[in-house]
Amino acid sequence: MEHVLRKRYPDTDFFNKEISTMTYFEGNLFKPKKDGPFTDLQTASDNDRLETDFFQRSIEAYQLALLSNKKYSFTMLYKSGSWQKYEQRAAALARKHPSRDPFAAYLSRCQHDDWDGANSRQSYRSALVRLAAQTVLELAPGYWPHVHAKTSDTEVRKQLVRHLRGNLDEATWCEIKSATHLISRAELKMFERAAAFLIQVPPDPEHTAVRQASTNSQDRSPKPRTENSKKKTLYALNQHQRRRAKEIAEYDWRSHLWTRAVLPDRHIDDKARAAIAVLMLTGCRSAELADDLGVVIRAFERNSKNYLAFEISGAKLADADAGGHGKGQERRWIEVSAQTPEGIWLFVHVSDQYDGQMLISLAAPSHSQTGIVLMPTERQRRVTNRLGKLIERLGRIAFPRLQQRLSPYVFRHALSSDLRSGGGRWSGDEIAVLLGHQSTRTQSNYGSANTSRGLSGNRADQITMVSALNPVRRQERGHPAVLDKPRPA
Predict the structure, then answer these.
(1) Could you tell me the pLDDT band of residue 187, with boundaries at 50, 70 and 90?
(2) DSSP string covering 402-444
(3) Confidence (pTM)
C-alpha cells in the first residue's frame, strides 16, 4: 500500500512511518450487526465481533475523503506549510480532551458551541477533515483486502468484490489489488475514528456550509465578532475626539496619531510611514500591501491642487459561482486630494520618487524556518500581523489611556463611517467599490453612519473619484449595479 500511496502523493512525507505486518484482528473492536447485506461475515470470519456495517461506511468515508482533495491536494498543503498547521490544531484539540482524541474534542465543542467565532470553528474543521481524509485514504486499501481475506464463505467473498467494484473507481481498485499489508488493531481503531468523523462532518471544499448558525444560539448570548471589537475601538476614539474638540476645535484622532506617533517615531522608515498613510487614506486591507499584491501610488497636480491616485490589487477574491456572484474587487482605483497631514506627507514623498509614482509593497518571507514554501495567503497574513503590531504600538504612544487595541482595520472602519455619514453623497455601490467589495451588503459590517457624524477630519471629504473592474451587486434589489465609469465626487 505504501508504494501505491507514494505514487499518488510522490512529494509528501506522510507515509515514512513503519507499517505493522499484523494480519489478524484482535479483541472486541466493534459490536456485531444483525442486519445488513454482509451478515454472513460474522460466521465466515475468524473474528465473530467484526461489525459488517462498518464495511459499507468505510466505502462512504473513502468517497468523502476523495472529495476533500477536490480543491487542494495533500501535496499542495504539505508544500505550503498548511499541513503542519493542521497537525498543530489537531494536537491542541487533543490536549483538551480526556481521551486525547481531537475528533471527539471537536464534536464536543460543537455540541456546546464552545468556539470564539465562525472562523475559529472553521479552521479546526478544515484541519480535522483533511487529517481524517488522509487517514482513510491511507488505511482503507489495507482494510478491504483484510475483510476479504478473513472471509471463508465463497459467496460472501464474491459479494464483497462486487460491492467494492460497484462503488469505487478503477484507480482505487488497483490500489486494493496491490495492497501488501493488512492493517493492525491500532490502525483499525484510527481508521474507524477517522471514517466516523468524515461521515459526521463531511468535507466542504467550497466552504458553503461552514458558517451555519449554532443550534444553541438562542440559549447563549452571542459571542463578540472581530468587527465589533474594531467598531468599539472606533467608537472610543471618536468619543475621545469629541472631548478634545471642546478644547481644540479642529482636533481629530487620525491627524493626532500621525503627528504625535507616526512621524516622530525613529524606529520606522519612510516605507512603513507610506504604508500607514495608505491605510488611513484608502481604508485598504493590510494584506493588500503585501509584495505579491501592493498598491501603486501616483502624485500629480490639477488646477493647482495636489492629488494622489491609488491602484489597489484586491486580497479577498473568489471566482463567480453558478449564480454569477463573485467576491472582492480584483482591482480598484481611488483618487484623493492631499489635504490631511498624512496625505500631504505622502504626496511629497511620492513626488520625490522617479516619475512621481511608487509601489508600496511590504516583503514577507517566501519560506518558513523549516524551508517550506509559504502560500500567498500565509505571506499576506504575516504582513497583516506585522502591520497590526506596529499600529498597536503607535496607538499606545498617541492614546496612552485608550483601553482598546488600535489596528489597521480601525482605519477601514473609520473611512467607511466617513463615507456613510456623508448625507447621501456616496452611494452604496461606490462605498462597496472603495472597500473592495462586490456586494453592497458587505459594507454593513464596517463602521456606522452615526459614529463619525459631526466630527472634523472626515477622510471621505478628500476622495474625488473611485472605480473598479467588477460590477457591484445590490442585494436588496436582486440585480447588479455596474460602476463602469469613474464618477467624480
Answers:
(1) confident
(2) --SPP-HHHHHHHHHHHHHTSTTSS-HHHHHHHHT-SBTTGGG
(3) 0.59
